[in-house]
Write a structure and sequence with these properties.
The protein is about 35% helix and about 20% strand. By secondary structure, the chain is an alpha+beta fold. A hairpin with a 6-residue loop joins strand 2 and strand 3. The longest helix is centred in the last third of the chain and has 15 residues.
C-alpha cells in the first residue's frame, strides 16, 4: 500500500483572492492588491511572500499573442507508446521540442496530451514526425480552430488599474 499523499493546507479567503487577482492581473502592485482585499500594503506583501514560499504562486509571466509570435496554429496531440513495455519517458524525450507548450499525463486511451503551437499545417506535420521519432509513440491530433478563452483567471477587480 502506498503512503497517502499529503494535502496542502487550504487557502483562506484573502489568500485565495490575492491569488485570483494576481492570476488575472499579474502586474498589480501591493498597494493595488491591498485596495482590492482591504489589507495594508505590508500585509499583502507578507501574504504574497508566504504564497510564494508555499509554492502556491510558482512564477509570474506575460500573456502572449501566439499568432503575432509566428505560432498561429495550436493543436492538441495525444500520444501513446508504440511499445507499452518500454520505459515511460516520453515527457523527457519530448522536452527539447520547443513547440510543445504543455504536457499533461492523462487517463484513458492515451498516455499524454500535448499542447503545441506552430506556424502552419506544414510545421505541424513536421513536428508530429519529430514527436513520433523522439518518443517512439503514435499520435492523434486535434487542431484548434479558434480560442474563445484560455488561461482564464477567476478574479475580477472593483476597478482596473492601467497595465
Amino acid at each position: 500500500m502506498s503512503a497517502p499523499v499529503e494535502q496542502p493546507a487550504p487557502l483562506d479567503p484573502l489568500d485565495r483572492r490575492i491569488v485570483e487577482l494576481l492570476a488575472a492581473y499579474g502586474r498589480l502592485s501591493f498597494t493595488d492588491l491591498g485596495r482590492e482585499t482591504g489589507l495594508s500594503t505590508s500585509a499583502v506583501h507578507q501574504r504574497v511572500k508566504r504564497l510564494e514560499q508555499r509554492s502556491v504562486i510558482t512564477g509570474y509571466g506575460a500573456r502572449i499573442d501566439h499568432g503575432r509570435m509566428g505560432q498561429g496554429l495550436t493543436a492538441f496531440v495525444a500520444v501513446r507508446p508504440i511499445d507499452p513495455s518500454q520505459p515511460d519517458d516520453s515527457p523527457d524525450r519530448l522536452a527539447p521540442l520547443p513547440e510543445i507548450t504543455s504536457c499533461f499525463s492523462v487517463a484513458g486511451d492515451f498516455s499524454y496530451l500535448l499542447q503545441v503551437r506552430v506556424a502552419s499545417p506544414l510545421a505541424l506535420e513536421d513536428l508530429l514526425a519529430r514527436i513520433r521519432a523522439a518518443a517512439n509513440v503514435s499520435t492523434h491530433t486535434t487542431v484548434v480552430l479558434s480560442t474563445p478563452y484560455e488561461d482564464r483567471a477567476t478574479g475580477s477587480m472593483t476597478h482596473r488599474s492601467p497595465a
